[in-house]
Amino acid sequence: MNILDAAYHTVHDFKGGANALAPRMGIRSPAVLNSKVNTNTDTHHLTLLEASKMMGITGDFRILHELNAEHGKVAIDLPVIPECRDTALTELALSTGIGGGDIQAVFKQMMADGRITEGEVVDMSRVINKLHIILAELSAQVRACVDK
Fold first, then answer.
1. pLDDT of 82-130, one tens digit each?
2. Cα(33)–Cα(117) distance, rounded to whole angstroms?
3. What does DSSP assign to residue 39?
4. What number of H helices and E strands is found in the chain?
5. Closest Cα partner for 36 from 64, 12, 56?
6. Distance between CA atoms of 147 and 31, rounded to whole angstroms?
7. What is the DSSP letter of 61?
8. At what angle do helices 30-37 and 3-13 cross, to 10 degrees?
9. What is the pTM for the complete model shown?
10. Cα radius of gyration (the chain)
11. How far apart are CA 107 and CA 115, in angstroms?
12. Which residues lie below 8 Å from residue 54, measured CB to CB, with a gap of 6+?
C-alpha cells in the first residue's frame, strides 16, 4: 500500500463512505472527496489538514502509517496515564529522550578517541543542562497531578 491507496481506503472503508464522511469533514460534495482520494484524478488533492481531520473522524490511521513507512519512521499511541490525563505531561515525559538530546550518542562520540576535549565537555554539559530543565519541569507537572 502507499499513501494514496491508504487515503482511498480510509474514505471507502468508512461506514457510509464518502457520503457519510464528506459532510463531517466540511466538504460539501461526496463527489469532491471521492475525487480527492482517487489516484486517477489530477484536479483534486487531499490537503494535510483534511488528511488529519479524516484520521481523527474515522480513527483510521493508515495514511499516517504509510507516511511513516515511507520515511522509515513509526507512530505509536501515547500512553494514557489514568492518574493524570494530561497529554502535555505525557509529551513532556517522552521528550526526556527526544527533545533533551541524545546523551548516549554524545557520550559515545566523546569517548570514541579515548580522550575528552574541552569542546566535548561543553557539548555534554549542554545536553545534561537540557535534561535538567526537562526533568525539573516534568517533576513539577507530575506533582501538580497529585490529588489533593
1. 655 566 666 766 666 655 567 777 888 888 898 999 998 888 888 888 8
2. 59
3. T
4. 8, 0
5. 12
6. 51
7. -
8. 150
9. 0.56
10. 22
11. 11
12. 7, 10, 11, 21, 25, 46, 60, 63
* Number of alpha carbons in the 13 Å side-chain half-sphere of residue 75: 13
Q: Nearest CA to 10 among 50, 41, 42, 44? A: 50
Query: Pseudo-torsion of CA 105, 107, 113, 116, nearest 10°?
Result: 140
Q: Quote the CA–CA distance of 135 and 137 in Å, as a whole number.
A: 5
Helix (H) or strand (E) holding 112: none
Phi/psi for 91 (5° steps) reads -60, -40
8 Å CB contact between 17 and 30: yes
Residues 6 or more apart whose Cβ sits within 8 Å of residue 31: 18
